Amino acid sequence: MKKFFILLIVFLACSGDEAYIEPSPVQDTTTTTVQDTTTTTVQDTTTTSTSTTVLKDFIKDWEKQLKDRIFLSNAEVETTENFYKLWFSKYPPNEIQKENFYEIKVDGRSCYRIYSSAGTAFLDEIHPMAVINDYLIDKKLSYAASFSYECNSSEDENSDYYFSTIYLYGVPFYYEEAWWIYKSVPLAEIKYVSLIQIDMSGPSNRPSWDFATRVKIDENDEFDSAPKSRDRRGIFPYDEDYSKKGTLAKVTLPIANGIITTVDISPKDTIRNYEIIYPQVKNHPSQACYDSINTEIENYVTTYVESDLGTEIYRKEIKEEEYDPGGYSYYSWMNLRYEIIEASDEVYSLFLYWDSYGAGAAHPISDPHSFNYDIKNCKKITILDLFDTNKNYVEGGYVGEKYIDIIHREVVLQLCAPETVESCESYAYSFDNFYDEPNIFLAGTTEFAIGQYGLFIQFWEYDFGYSSGEELILLPWHDILITLNKNGPYSDILKIYSQKNELATEYEPEWEFDN
Q1: Half-sphere exposure of 509 (CA within 13 A, CB side)
Q2: 225 to each of 96, 229, 231, how far by Cα in Å?
Q3: Which domains does the chain have, with CATH numbers?
Q4: How far apart are CA 515 and CA 498, in angstroms?
Q5: CA 168 – CA 145 distance, rounded (Å)
Q6: What is the spatial order of strands in the sheet that 379-380 belongs to?
Q7: Segment 441-500, tens digit of pLDDT
Q8: pTM of the predicted model, to two decimals?
Q9: What is the CA radius of gyration of the chain?
């Protein structure tokens, strides 16, 4: 994509203002002091040096009121970049009407492409493509963009806008199943209007830039010509035996070397029927670590079963007092099954699925549990440490826990696949409104396992209401790459995964990870 963006950088970098350039110190005897509403000392606009000090003051204030940043998923970036290939200028200025996307509409208002990039606008949020592709004027001030469209407007409307007309800024981008761009806003709506000096002929405490906010582009058949991102794999379906081994086979590595044995510790001669099996890894090159893991899993399963057996006395009483006298059948059972995601020299990860039913209950209940180990260090993996949760704007990344926005968006896309989010009301609405924890990694009921293809997420049956049914999805590393911690404790594992290009599928593409 870099070749494409050479042209785009040239197009958008030509601003009529020098506001982004730090001027060299120049001694000038024509400077004057001007008192304005911000009581800031500035140089006269006729001097050699621009008003850098007051520009920084304005920018500092402007940054304070920026909206929360939005983040595009990898798939949305892919769609946007496919669009750019069609959007680039192919004709001289006098034939601009022949360009793709020459006319678009925003709120029913027609807007037309223009070649001039002399006008620039402050955006009220960080541009979502500023970091992914450096096509804005300055990466450090990535809340700015240049003219791209001029819109129809009346004389009465024009008086409300900084450049006396309505413009669209920057290049459109794809986000949440729609196309967006930034549009001029009336000066009266600017929160920091007191900092603006409208008289452009005199000293100014800010560059001569417009102000713009994100707006949705009206539906446009031409935009449909931009290739959309690939399909998602979606929820893994059940096999006939109520396992998912068959559907998981294409994206798991149950054992790279060694063998997996199944241990059956099902209690016998009990009121409740038990079928308890769990795996043990044998003859593996990293067997020393696997021995430790085998013991931990054995202890976990044994303790779980022993705890349940402690309630046998109550089941016996209920059966003898309430069921047997009336000749009623008494059904109570507990099962344990497992799915191994990976057993390699890098990672051991698996899900254990507890299912049980108590006599008289409306339905069975499940209790999924996961184990994830870093084999090289023989330690449990902390899933949250896979992600960079504390980048900042200077680095062109996230602030606080904004990484979770991308994770949540990819989760909904997988839950809804092959439908779009807009047509998938059930999961999209439920995830936003009924999923108790705003950070999926802190939910408690949801389990995770990592593997070569990505992050597996196993939902509990009640995460979206009982009828939804224990959804299991996979977030490909490709789709959440921007959230991964390149300096984290598992960066070496991720690096190894990223180099296995032979594993790529139509749902889990190749990806690059440089730590």
Answers
A1: 13
A2: 19, 12, 17
A3: 2-225 (no CATH), 245-503 (3.30.565.40)
A4: 11
A5: 9
A6: 259-264, 273-282, 333-343, 347-357, 365-374, 379-380
A7: 887 889 999 999 999 999 988 877 655 678 999 999 988 888 899 999 999 999 999 999
A8: 0.65
A9: 30
